Amino acid sequence: MKFIYYLFAFMIVSPPVLAQTASLRGQVLDQNGAVIPAAKVMVTDASGRGKTTSTDATGSYAFTGLPPGDYSVEASAPSLLLPEAEKITLKPGSQTLNLQLRVVLQEQKVNVQETTSPSVTTDSGNNASAVVLRGDDLKALGDSSEDLQTDLQALAGPSAGPGGGAIFIDGFSGGQLPSKDSIREIRINQNPFSPEYDKLGLGRIEIFTKPGTDKFRGTGFYNFAHHFWNSRNPYAQQKAPFLLQEYGGSVSGPLNKRSSFFLDVRRDEVDNGSIINAIMLDPQTLSIINPFTDTPRTPQRRISINPRVDYQLNPKNTLTLRYVFTHSDVRDAGLGGFNLVSRGYHLQGDNQTVQATETAVLGTSIINETRFQFFRSNGETIANSLAPAIQVLGSFNGGAAQTGHSFNTQNNYEFQNYTSIARKLHYLKFGFRLRGETVDNTSPQNFGGTFTFGGGSAPVLDANNQPVLDSSGRLVQAPITSIERYRRTLLFQQLGLMPSRIRELGGGATQFSISAGNPQLSAGQFDVGVFIGDDWRVRPNLTLSLGLRYETQTNIHDWRDFAPRLGIAWAPGAGNDPHPKTVIRAGFGIFYDRFVLSNILAARRYNGTVQQQYVITDPDFFPSIPPVSSIAGFQPTVTIQQISPTLRAPYIMQSTFGVERQLPFNTTLAVTYANSHGLHLLRSQDINAPLAPGSGVYPFGKPGPVFLMESAGLYNQHQLIANVNARINKDISLTGSYVLNRAMSNTDGVGTFPAKPYDFTGEYGPAATDVRHRFSLTGSFNTKWNVRLNPFVIVDSGPPFDITIGRDLYGTTLFNARPGIPIDPNKPGLIRTRYGLLDPNPTPDEMILPRNYGRGPGSVMVNLRVTKTIDFGGERKVAVAPSRGSAGGRTEGRPAGSGGGALSARGGAQSGASAASGSRRYSLSISMSIRNLINHTNPGPIIGNITSPLFGQANQPAGGGGFIFSEAANNRRLELQMRFTF
Question: What is the pLDDT of residue 79?
Fold first, then answer.
């Protein structure tokens, strides 16, 4: 660690290496401070001789071997230009000049390839393992916010670590995902060890929205889908209803000579069939129905409005304002999987985001960005029923949703100030981020009570539901499922048996829980992050990136969160060649996770005073609910949640080593080994569990679980990652990756408890992110008939899942106990599974099955979008201003809102006004978006309860219940899309 600090200090004070020739480097940014790849940069000496280059994926450019003297520098990009040429006097050595482009009125017809040809360089932000999607490449992604987020997380893959891929929107964390129409560019895994970011670089997702333009442009779209052309969901016996209508559009243009706007409006109307796949009882005969399926319709409505304004305060300062408003209304939400129709609830809410960014160009080498974001989420949930809930584990969930009438208002504030300084061989960036969050929450969760039925051991019944006796007259015992326990409860209640007798015969609820107290609670949290970093070009073929970040937050006593970052990029044998064939990269960084406010809310709410969680084992009053005031007479246990006083922020140390190679046909290959070592990860344990099952001896002297959130988890991950990026020509682009992954941990988050109290043996096993193989492919193909194909393919091997026995074995009120591995294969009550014989009643001498021992099936998702675009309206002719005349012939087009400057076009000398052809006025695109083209069945979460009739299976498709707003009614979904552009 000291070596890193010393090296960083040395880097700051190290003198540049002078040379007899001059070199010029810098970055090209837009008026919002975002870098511009593929921008054209031209440097011209006093005699008119010039050189031209293009910026790389980080917006960086470089000229080397220039004679000292006076130069003018110009830059341009599609719809952007430098207001006026920059003048600079170059001296021997290296100098830096950053350029800021502004939106211009671009009258000439310009054929621009929207994807940058990939190349390997030693620039820190131009790693070939990154995925950069813009232009036509974005069409491969889903259109709705849910589909888009699913696709982005799939592209990020297991590289993102245990927390998944973090999403940043215009540099801000959190907030709501923008409409795809308003997205300019998406970057994944770019500059992974930058100290600017707190989240893991591998898998980080950055989204940049579109700025305004200075001539009016617009689009209108309508998307339609219906269940008649979709395939049946494999987890329902009948085809689920589905009707999708999405419509809206965007318009952009000038407000005046110094400002422009972009406005995006979208309306989503989706009637989605929620897939219920459960195991039920026939209400008349009490016979088991396996499976019971239903497809109730869930109406979903959403509208979003996204205006953005870009304002040029002066030639050096630009202000961007962006506002996003989304209103959602979903009726009968929460259905599907095991949840029956009675579990529905009405969900409605508003999300609002305000973003302001001010970019200042302070001289020729300093850029300062000041950003502020306010995000407000306001939600209301109304349960369709106030009845108690019934959970028959691994079979069905009935009764009410137990959300009551809930309200949640969350306010998030974020302020950033970042400064970039280019000094000869160094490019420094430093700044800070301040974030605040407040929550006002009303949550009468489980105020109606929940009965839980689990499996276990019970007497064997004959065909007349009478207990079977062995030769000695004793009851024959055998494992029963949760639905069988529920069936016996209803059956023997109808026969008028006493509750005690019902329990003797294997009936009766396993557990009853209910909450009471004050449902209202407010809390807040604040965190700060400070960083400094430098990209030091030690040699033309060697770049050293050094950085240091510090973070801290309120609500936990942790002030030690220093995060050094180090990156090295070396092009062996390249010398002064700015386009080497091979680059070797290595990096190291520490990345912290914040302790989120929802954990603080849980600890404060369930502290035994604000709210009380009562749990009664083996209740005999089903289905009646006793008054809460009389619960004490049933000797309940009161559940308390606490935060460990020694808790600290979890962190992951990630290191990589990779080789990048330039291949023919504008293709790059990057092979990277990545190692992630996580310490102090979050998990929980019951610190007041009985010292021995049934002993009645508790550490705190009285019964009652005390769930302690602690930072004692461990995470280890090894990955071999291969990335291929190809921009073969303007019609063909491809991005593919393969990941060989191995991830082990003893926790999958704060909700992970050890299966056996006080014993962490067997807890270290495959992590939830232990997906061994993952392949992805996305791209864009334009055929000679102007029909564009955008494939998106994800192939994964199966994830792990935990295997449990479905009941509270150790008196913790949890149902996470795992079965034992029997020593005696003839022991009564064993359950035969694909993982061998398992003991649902493990004895102390048996080894407990390790955590996440099960392994689910893999998945294959093939999506395809086919688009035909028709241009019409004729071509228009526009005047081009006369040339001011110089060697090489320069034509000038004055930008809107600028006092001068030139849009450069190199060619023969011109004089007088001339005519140039413009693009067609209008276009109509007709697309068919197909999700799951091959109709492959991709199972969702695997049921690990060995007493469930569905053990080892899924009862819903992958992604079927991941979002409140869902479009997952059918297995293969076709969506007709029409888009008009002017």
Answer: 55
Query: Which DSSP letter does residue 651 get?
Result: E
Average pLDDT, the chain: 86
How much is the pLDDT for 116? 56
Nearest in space to 515 (alpha carbons), one of 403, 393, 394, 399:
403
Residues contacting residue 519 through CB under 8 Å, at least 6 positions apart: 404, 406, 442, 443, 444, 445, 447, 611
Within a 10 A sphere around the Cβ of 525, how many other Cβ atoms?
21
- The secondary structure element, H or E, covering residue 923 is strand 914-931
- Encoded tokens for 258: 């110094």
pLDDT at 857: 95
The residues that bridge with 346 in the sheet, in sequence order, are 382
- CA 586 vs CA 40, 161, 195, 589, 908: distances in Å: 30, 18, 15, 11, 47
Q: Give me the amino acid identity at 875.
A: E
End-to-end Cα distance, the chain: 57
Judge whether 537 and 425 are in contact, CB under 8 Å: yes
| pLDDT tens digit sequence for 763-809 | 999 999 999 999 999 999 998 888 999 999 999 999 999 999 988 99
User: Residue 759 is encoded by which pair of tokens?
Assistant: 């014993």
Q: Taking the mean position of all CA atoms in its chain, how far away is CA 189?
A: 13
> Average pLDDT of 225-246?
94
Count the neighbouring beta carbons within 10 Å of the beta carbon of residue 14: 12
Question: Residue 503: helix, strand or coil by DSSP?
Answer: helix
Q: Are 58 and 39 within 8 A, CB to CB?
A: no
DSSP assigned state of 970: S
Q: Answer whether residue 121 shows pLDDT above 90.
A: no
- Token readout for 900 is 């001068």
DSSP state of 910: -
Most confident listed range (98-112, 171-185, 683-697, 916-930) = 683-697
Check if the beta carbon of residue 837 is closer than 8 Å to that of residue 825.
yes
Q: Which two tokens stand for residue 841?
A: 């009643």
Residue 45 or residue 969, greater confidence: 969
Which single residue is written with the structure tokens 């000398």?
A: 909
Q: What share of the chain is helix, strand, coil (3-state, %, to 5)?
A: 10, 50, 40
Q: What DSSP designation does 239 have?
A: P
Distance CA 525, CA 590 (A): 23
Tokens at residue 819, please? Answer: 């079965």
Closest CA to 418 of 170, 192, 199: 170
Length of the chain: 982
List CB contacts of 541: < 8 A, sequence separation 6 or more: 122, 570, 571, 572, 573, 574, 575, 576, 577, 580
Closest CA to 856 of 953, 971, 957, 714: 953
Distance CA 893, CA 816 (A): 70
Q: Cα–Cα distance between 779 and 139 in angstroms, integer?
A: 9
Amino acid code (one letter) for 101: L
- For residue 5, the model assigns a pLDDT of 44
- 6 pLDDT higher than 60: no
Cβ atoms of 521 and 604 closer than 8 Å: yes
Whole-number Å distance between alpha carbons of 263 and 247: 14
Q: Which of 226, 260, 256, 254 is nearest to 240 (CA)?
A: 226
